[in-house]
Design a protein that fits this description.
mainly alpha; two-stranded antiparallel sheet; 12 helices
């Protein structure tokens, strides 16, 4: 019998209950170890174990949706399985374990096109371009016209995703330095065990593992958001270029029906302008056609999408340098500025 997995909100409740019950059980165990007259905290331990089991059960992926198996194809062609990202748990989203079935399938045999997951509905080019044009129309309706540059429009369109990526990047910057921070205290405890308790030293050691894990998760999520922004930008730019090409072709066709001489002169001037603006394309005019321009812009769109996927490194690396210099200054003093 397959049981549907709980919602993400319920998983957060399970995690909060696990944290509270674990703290209660820890406090009760410490009191029991310090006093021989206290009974064993059975109730607190049982509640902590139940909360742990409930939280671990939320890691299981949903097997059925609306009476249909989770691997039922949901794409328009009916050949690709739907992306399990939508029904994945919080842990699966953080560690990308929803990709495990495909990875194991690729380990057993070579993957085929029908084995690949379908795109999420919000990642399809039609949905992205429609959303882009709808927001542009809304902005133009509010401000009279949309005179912004393409860069400003893209930044405004992806403002929420960029803000979320910034949060994950800041989390990575904080936790990447947890290793040196905790290691300094571990070495201080080894030199002088009186400055920290034994329990605190164990927490420092556990923090080394937890800090590295959280830093890896934060960096992976920031890169994942960047890659999604990259494919969306590629879809938007290619869609705009194709739309501009179609409008240009319609304008040229309309000019031909009105007067052949004027249309021929317009096409000749447009071809000459395109041939001079292209980098050494040739003088025969073939490379200045609309198809060639569209193909060249598609390549440029791919390059722009690749750059935008790693744009958070522009502020991540300087922030890491500042934090590293501050920590070295706290440790070595003015001598750290020489390095």
């Amino acid at each position: 019998i397959s049981v549907p997995s709980p919602s993400p909100h319920l998983r957060l409740v399970f995690f909060a209950g696990l944290f509270i019950d674990s703290v209660k059980a820890r406090t009760a165990l410490l009191a029991y170890s310090r006093s021989k007259h206290r009974p064993l905290p059975v109730i607190e331990l049982a509640m902590a174990i139940i909360a742990l089991l409930l939280f671990l059960s939320s890691f299981t992926q949903q097997r059925r949706r609306h009476g249909m198996p989770a691997y039922t194809p949901a794409s328009a062609s009916g050949t690709n399985p739907p992306a399990p990202e939508r029904t994945a748990s919080i842990a699966q989203l953080l560690f990308f374990s929803w990709m495990d079935p495909m990875i194991w399938l690729g380990y057993k045999r070579s993957l085929e096109p029908n084995d690949l997951y379908d795109l999420m509905p919000e990642d399809n080019s039609a949905h992205v371009c429609a959303h882009w044009r709808r927001e542009s129309r809304v902005y133009a309706r509010r401000h009279g016209r949309d005179s912004r540059s393409l860069t400003r429009r893209l930044f405004w369109f992806f403002r929420y995703r960029l803000a979320l990526q910034c949060v994950w990047t800041l989390g990575y910057i904080v936790f990447i330095f947890s290793g040196p921070f905790l290691l300094k205290r571990i070495l201080a405890y080894m030199e002088d065990p009186s400055i920290y308790t034994r329990e605190q030293a164990f927490w420092f050691v556990a923090g080394l593992l937890a800090g590295g894990t959280i830093a890896t998760v934060c960096q992976s999520q920031a890169l994942w958001i960047g890659r999604k922004i990259g494919i969306h930008i590629k879809s938007i730019i290619i869609g705009e270029v194709y739309a501009k090409s179609l409008r240009r072709r319609d304008a040229a066709t309309g000019g031909t029906s009105d007067g052949g001489t004027n249309a021929k002169d317009a096409m000749d001037s447009s071809a000459s302008t395109s041939s001079t603006s292209s980098d050494g394309v040739g003088e025969d005019g073939d490379m200045s056609s609309l198809g060639t321009i569209t193909n060249l812009m598609a390549v440029d769109a791919y390059k722009i999408s690749e750059v935008s996927a790693y744009m958070h490194f522009l502020y991540q690396l300087p922030a890491e340098m500042v934090v590293a210099v501050l920590m070295l200054y706290q440790l070595l003093g003015i001598a750290s500025l020489a390095g």
